[in-house]
Amino acid sequence: METIRIYQQDPYCRTAAAAVTSANYDGRSTRIILDQTIFFPTGGGQSCDTGTITCGSACYPVTEVIEEGETVVHLVSGDASALSAGDSVDLAIDWDHRFDNMQRHCGEHILSGAFFRLYGGGNKGFHMGEDYMTIDIEFPEDASAKRVTWEMARAAELDANRVIWEDVPVHVNYFDTREEAETYPLRKALAFEEDISVVTIGDPAAPADCVACCGTHPSSSGQVGLIKIFKIEPNKGMSRIYFEAGSRAFGKIQQQFDTLYDISVKLSAGTDDVLAKFDAYEHRAEETHAALSALRGRLLESEADTLVAEMQAGLVKYYDDFTVDDIFNLGKKLSGSITGAIALVCRPANTAVLLSEGEPHCGKLVKENASPFGGKGGGNATSARAFFPDAESLDAFLSNVL
Ligand SMILES: [Zn+2]
Q1: 200 C-alpha vs ligand 1 centroid, how far in Å?
Q2: Predicted TM-score of the model (pTM)
Q3: Distance (Å) from CA 99 to ligand 1 centroid
Q4: 165: exposed, middle or buried (C-beta count within 10 Å: 0-12, 13-18, 19+)?
Q5: How far is the CA of 230 from the centre of ligand 1 (A)?
């Protein structure tokens, strides 16, 4: 049975009365069919409306709306079978959710239209995610462009926002047949033969966009508010564009500005010169790193000389300022000068590096003796590492093997 779809004629209708056609409870949820509805069912990449169906003092939250042929089915969780055919009910949709959908859906049309008009790029895939919307842009074989560059994306983004600033009308026209619909300058070939709704943004003679779509859209482009592209990614030979429209685009830009502002404060910069300040900061960090590396190298050389002078089997040295990598580098400088097995310990990491000239076999010492003390590690004949849960376990291991 055909449900009259009020949202098609008036997407701004937030509340309406309707009569129940049927209400069937299946043990988990109730399927409610009405003579008419303001609830948009899931379809065309757009999520369904949520809201309530109220009858007297009983209010049923609508969790899902689906389309079954010409019928719109409203699902409410739990038992709503107290509703019976002929009952009058009041419908209310979650307007914030609906308007969000309208802004996003229309934003997708406008941006896709911009890529098409500017570069001949076709939108081959659309997804309305929770974090971003994406479109996959593909170019025909004979097009000069093969993929979307950031410069192209910025030009399309500017063009799309100009369409918003011009606040042109958004028309939805319904056609019974494909032939009638194809009199419009459609961006994309039709996928249906009949009952086609065509959304035209701007003058139909030279529209910003014109495409078949069953979603809900605002009545003018200005209501989309804003379109912002955030990322481009290659995807199966196409270019995937991550973007947002409307209040979501505004929210993301606010969030990103807040981050920029916080970074500016940390660098004692303004948001305009934060990059120059960061470059200077990075340059200073590189200089400091280079100076530190040189000093570290000299310190390791000096420590190697000390170790060679003190060398004896079973030598154990503890370090608080060297990393495990530093200690391995130190070990390399000792090659040819080691007596028996010695241990160099990185105290903060509870890690011992065992070194020898091959006898005893350091890797075997770790493999055969570390685990009783909770240690793990391994290595080869001349060097091995073992790390432990605490300093006491490490010391107990060293007492055992050296
Ligand atoms: Zn649409």
Answers
A1: 10
A2: 0.80
A3: 13
A4: exposed
A5: 21
